[in-house]
Write a structure and sequence with these properties.
The chain has about 120 residues and is mainly α. It has seven helices and three strands. The protein is globular and about 50 Å long.
């Protein structure tokens, strides 16, 4: 478990892997599907995933720059292990949303506001 958690530590890595498991994406497209991630954080997370061998960076060496990201074989194998977690999330999405909303309400009452899911 520690080995797997070490590879995916960070708020965005699992979501990056999830989206790249569906298709090869350019940086801007990946940022769009992720939503609220900054360019800096996305670049850092992608760099770490590439360094760890889960993601491949494909540089087409063109002007303007054209770079795409895709899962490696190692990355696809890694993502297979999370299929059950994705299915669990699909089955329990409503309940998880209620839990997240309750956390936000509780944090707001306590004088500090926290984003849902944080």
């Amino acid at each position: 478990m520690e080995a797997a958690v070490d590879l995916i530590a960070g708020k965005w890595k699992l979501l990056i892997l999830y989206h790249l498991g569906r298709e090869r994406l350019r940086f801007a497209a990946l940022r769009r599907v992720l939503g609220d991630v900054s360019e800096k954080v996305l670049a850092e997370q992608l760099k770490a995933l590439v360094a760890d061998g889960l993601v491949r960076r494909i540089d087409f060496r063109t002007v303007p720059p054209h770079v795409e990201y895709e899962l490696t074989e190692f990355g696809h194998d890694f993502c297979k292990s999370f299929a059950a977690v994705c299915e669990w999330g699909d089955r329990n999405m409503d309940r998880v949303a209620r839990i997240s909303a309750a956390r936000v309400r509780e944090d707001t009452r306590g004088g500090r506001k926290r984003e849902a899911g944080a």
